[in-house]
Design goal:
rod-shaped, eight-stranded mixed β-sheet, alpha+beta, single chain, three-stranded mixed β-sheet, 7 helices
């Protein structure tokens, strides 16, 4: 009996040892399997990882990196056409200073394995549960490069409109077509450029406004041609002469300006304003103003043109018509100035050309009334048609001339 108990204890210890050894072997095998599994998948991104809202879970790091490059880097080298008023610029977002930090953000993905334990990594991979890790990507751009592009385009496309231009070709009128202008909207264009580049657009149209010419070919119904030396005013309707008027133009000392002008104001029964600026100058001895009525230096009608002080106006000195006798203005008879006044409008082109030598009057006539020089009528020219003064009746045919200063030089 004494020998039986020690034998039983010995057998029990053997079985316990065998069980412990079996558990140890099983645990060691599981750990080894886990290590092997984790090592085999160490280059695979865990499920539920996104970079810049692009899912890369389950991809190898190489595949994930290539996918992110395609999504964020490749578009920066795409061809982009920037257009404004027919002008094209070929560029890329990268050339305009656009960049992303996607590769820097990707390095955070590569560090995810180290932030989890072995068993956590194995558990996520085996179960397929998403990690729920979202990494943001920042896209930056160069404000200075965008502004430089818009500034360069602006200098190339901005242009003022060109008005229709009548020209005298021989005895005929030729009207050159008007050309529209363009004005780039700089701020709006910058905003469109930024938004379109960030949206991935390949063609970008900048903002601007087409500026129409104030005087278009369709607006020109009448053209006035003044031939200095010949001292005639030709009224064209389209390309046809409808009437020719005898006029007086400027003397050699006070020449009528040459060039292309236009009617900027129509004055019915105008008031003459003395332009004298210093004692002894022309007009110093004359009244400061001469109101409407017979003897007014501007007659009863005046067409102001956009040359300082120059008018096409009526005169009472009919003996000067046909000669170079004025101080720069174009004189017409009272009746014909009134006729022409009613036929043309503000904006009518006026072409003044020299077609012959100065033709002075045979002798100086007796002084009658003052005429403005090229700067002699100080009346303002607002550039729009002026209606007759309110409540003012035209003078009767038999109205006596207002008292005039004596002596009074001829217009």
């Amino acid at each position: 009996m004494k020998n039986i108990l020690p034998q039983r204890r010995s057998r029990t210890l053997i079985w316990v040892s065998i069980l412990v050894a079996s558990i140890m072997l099983a645990t060691t095998g599981a750990a080894a399997a886990a290590i092997t599994y984790d090592d085999r998948n160490r280059n695979v991104v865990l499920h539920g990882v996104t970079v810049g809202e692009v899912a890369i879970g389950g991809l190898t790091y190489t595949q994930a990196k290539q996918k992110l490059i395609r999504e964020f880097e490749t578009p920066l080298d795409r061809s982009v056409v920037v257009q404004a008023h027919g002008h094209l610029v070929h560029t890329t977002p990268r050339d305009l200073g656009f960049s992303s930090d996607v590769l820097e953000r990707f390095s955070q993905v590569e560090k995810l394995n180290g932030s989890l334990s072995l068993m956590q990594r194995v558990l996520y991979r085996l179960t397929g549960n998403p990690l729920g890790k979202s990494i943001e990507v920042t896209t930056a751009f160069s404000e200075a490069k965008l502004e430089a592009l818009v500034d360069d385009i602006e200098t190339k496309v901005n242009q003022e409109p060109v008005e229709a231009q009548p020209r005298l070709v021989g005895d005929s009128i030729q009207i050159d077509l008007d050309q529209p202008g363009f004005a780039l909207d700089r701020q709006a264009s910058l905003a469109v450029l930024k938004k379109s580049l960030q949206s991935g657009d390949s063609r970008i149209v900048l903002k601007g406004e087409v500026k129409r010419a104030e005087l278009r070919k369709s607006d020109i119904s009448d053209v006035l041609v003044v031939k200095v030396g010949e001292n005639k005013l030709y009224h064209y309707r389209g390309e046809t002469v409808v009437k020719v008027y005898d006029v007086a133009t400027g003397t050699a000392r006070y020449p009528t300006p040459k060039g292309t002008f236009k009617v900027v104001n129509k004055r019915h029964r105008p008031t003459w304003v003395n332009p004298a600026k210093y004692p002894g100058g022309w007009g110093w001895s004359l009244p400061k103003r001469i109101g409407p009525g017979p003897g007014n230096p501007l007659g009863t009608r005046a067409l102001d043109i956009n040359s300082p002080g120059i008018r096409i106006h009526g005169t009472y000195a009919n003996n000067s018509l046909g000669y170079n006798a004025s101080h720069g203005c174009i004189r017409m008879s009272i009746a014909e100035s009134e006729e022409l006044f009613d036929l043309v409008k503000v904006g009518t082109p006026v072409l003044i050309t020299q077609t012959g030598p100065v033709r002075p009057m045979p002798k100086a006539p007796a002084p009658t009334t003052p005429e403005p020089t090229a700067e002699s009528d100080a009346s303002e020219v607002p550039g729009q048609e002026q209606p007759p003064p309110e409540n003012e009746e035209p003078p009767p045919d038999n109205e006596e001339p207002a008292p005039e200063p004596s002596p009074s030089p001829a217009i």
